[in-house]
Amino acid sequence: MEKFTVHTGLVAPLDRENVDTDAIIPKQFLKSIKRTGFGPHLFDAWRYIDVGQPGMDLTKRTLNPDFVLNRPQYRGASILLARKNFGCGSSREHAPWALQQGGFKAVVAPSFADIFFNNSFKNGFLPIALQESEVARLFDEAVGAPGYRLTIDLAAQTVTTPSGEAMHFDIDDFRKKSLLNGWDDIGLTLRNAAEIKAYEERRKRAEPWIFG
Amino acid sequence: MTAQTLYEKLWDSHLVREDPDGTALIYVDRHLVHEVTSPQAFEGLALHGRAPWRIGSVVATADHNVPTHARSEGIADPISRLQVETLDQNVVKFHVKTYFGMNDRRQGIVHVIGPEQGATLPGMTVVCGDSHTSTHGAFAALAFGIGTSEVEHVLATQCLLTKRLKTLLIRAEGKLPPGVTAKDLVLAIIGKIGTAGGTGHAIEFGGSAVRAQSMEGRMTICNMAIEAGARSGMVAVDETTIDYLRGRPLCPQGEMFDTAAAYWRTLVSDPGAKFDRVVDIDVASLKPQVTWGTSPEMVVSIEDRVPDPSKEADPARRGAIERALEYMGLEPNVAMSDIAIDKVFIGSCTNSRIEDLRAAAAVVKGQRVAKNVKLALVVPGSGLVKTQAEKEGLDRVFLDSGFEWRDPGCSMCLGMNDDKLAAGERCASTSNRNFEGRQGAGGRTHLVSPEMAAAAAIAGHFVDVRRGR
Ligand code: SF4
């Protein structure tokens, strides 16, 4: 997994609540059996006027000029700012893949849907929950100031604004360590193989039908 | 011993280890697999040279991409076909024993066939790379959706890294009025607590209104727990649960069944168990529900009107309402029963079980689909549901009324196959998500019960199903 330590990047404000994973990456792109190639279709239905299909020639498509990420000042943005309950809906991990492949390293919002939140960490993509009032302020500042950048310091658990104000965010220790080190969850879990085996033996005696 | 909630019992019995910071390893009993979220996981396993830990826990099917008609001709779309073929190959390569491939007569939506085959049992942890895995909680299982990395993690280790959830009891007391269903109940719950209302929680659905439900009804309710933000929803075991399970192919049989059932009967929240939150809902005056917007919490009763954003004080909410109305092509204050529809979809893992089809057929029997309705689809949840319905003559009832009768799969619930809405088309749908573009780019979805969808098909617009009774 990719490490995450400190990141400074341009902020793109996506002023919507309940952004669902189908909006992040529409279902027609889930037909892929690969983990890559989702970046150009990030927010496909909002980003383009025409309806996207896998394998389309992107140069022939019409961008929707009203969609915020298409505005020139947000080109190269790596931190997404959104409203509450970001990532709701389908469990597709293609959502964090698409965000990452679309150039984003992190998303800041007041709250996240559980599965999306969890999926993000597995990919070194950082979802940061701040207070609703803090997010509202970041929106005001980002919309008002072209080239608005934030610095995310995972070790310090802070998001720092251009004026130097640091906002604290929570993250559990295990996730933080994994991200900082780029650890692979499966490798970590397999270190407990003996414990898993012992558990399995106990369960086989208690509920043999599970193993039938 | 202290009184425990059902969730706590399930958690404790699956805990392999727990670190001081709360990160826990829990054991997975049943792993359901479908073609969309598994290819990258199997590939990852192979890339790292890892073998599956307990492949016997896997039950696989192809459901999202499969065509719902002329199936013997195969899948026309090459990309969909490749995905289904990849699953076929992975099943062989990794020795998956229980696979209901596209042409198996038991094939169907993963959340319909799991319970139907007895693959979902009380006291199990059930996972699947699919958010509606919450459905299986109807059997007092701890069931939740996972991402593809976690699918790989479960394949490799039979465990998941996770944390204990908070508990939320939703207590629905009273008797549902005639014409008001489990679907209406769960939509009303989401309307009440919101789509993030259950975030971070495991929901237990209790109360007399839930206990009175059949297993089908309980599955409908748990199915939509995720739409209330909760990864898991569950219902305690009772005799309805046990009776449903007896004799199912993957269930223990004979004496083993009785031993299992004795244990299963303990899978209830103890009297006096403490929940982190309790929400009460009185169902006696509940009415049939219809969503008007682009989130399941945007729901009202059929007697209500489309909301007026100008009456909303909170600017963020007002914006959300305005945006939803614009997408849905609706004017404020229009009576829900004046909204005309273009298509009807009866299906999905929420409402495609035999009971749902019986209920819908009872409404349409002897009547014709309205002229303005371009397409009315019935897509049974599984091959076995389809066969059963045909045995009862339900296919004739639907066909005679002008519905199409299809082969099982996810179909127009998400439109990954050919069944979808065109831009601007309005659909009465028994599925679970009304997000923008869910049933096809630009399509407009209204979530309803099977009875309400059937009544709308006949009337050509939403209508109070209780009137015809
Ligand atoms: S029927 Fe719909 S919600 Fe259910 S598994 Fe299929 S796509 Fe998902």
What would you note in describing this structure?
The complex is a heterodimer of chains A (212) and B (469). Chain A is an alpha/beta fold. Chain A contains eight helices and seven strands, in the order βααβαβαβαβββααα. Chain A has a single domain, classed as Aconitase, domain 4. Chain A has a seven-stranded mixed β-sheet with strand order 4-3-2-1-5-6-7. In chain A, a hairpin with a 4-residue loop joins strand 5 and strand 6. Chain A is globular, with a radius of gyration of 20 Å. The mean pLDDT of chain A is 94. In chain B, helix 2 crosses helix 5. Chain B is an alpha/beta fold and 469 residues long. Chain B is globular. In chain B, the strands form five sheets. In chain B, strands 5-4-3-6-7 form a five-stranded parallel β-sheet, with helices on one face. Chain B is built from 15 helices and 19 strands. The chains are: A alpha/beta (212), B alpha/beta (469). At the A-B interface, helix 4, helix 7 and helix 8 of A face helix 2, helix 3, helix 5, strand 8 and helix 10 of B. Bound molecules: iron/sulfur cluster.
Task: List its traits.
heterodimer, A: 212 residues, alpha/beta, Aconitase, domain 4, seven-stranded mixed β-sheet, 31% helix, globular, B: 469 residues, five-stranded parallel β-sheet, 19 strands, 17% strand, binds iron/sulfur cluster
Describe the secondary-structure layout.
The complex is a heterodimer of chains A (212) and B (469).
Chain A: E1 6-14, H1 21-24, H2 44-47, E2 79-82, H3 94-101, E3 106-109, H4 114-121, E4 126-129, H5 132-144, E5 149-153, E6 158-160, E7 166-168, H6 173-181, H7 185-190, H8 193-206
Parallel strand pairs in A: 1-2, 2-3, 3-4
Antiparallel strand pairs in A: 1-5, 5-6, 6-7
Chain B: H1 6-14, E1 15-18, E2 24-27, E3 30-33, H2 39-47, E4 58-61, H3 78-93, E5 98-100, H4 110-117, E6 125-128, E7 142-145, H5 148-157, E8 159-162, E9 166-173, H6 182-193, E10 201-206, H7 208-211, H8 215-223, E11 232-234, H9 239-245, H10 254-264, E12 277-282, E13 289-291, E14 299-301, H11 315-328, E15 343-346, H12 354-364, E16 375-378, H13 383-391, H14 394-401, E17 404-405, E18 426-429, E19 444-447, H15 450-459
Parallel strand pairs in B: 3-4, 3-6, 4-5, 6-7, 9-10, 9-12, 10-11, 15-16, 15-18, 16-17, 18-19
Antiparallel strand pairs in B: 1-2, 2-8, 13-14
Bound molecules: iron/sulfur cluster.
Iron/sulfur cluster binds next to loops of chain B.
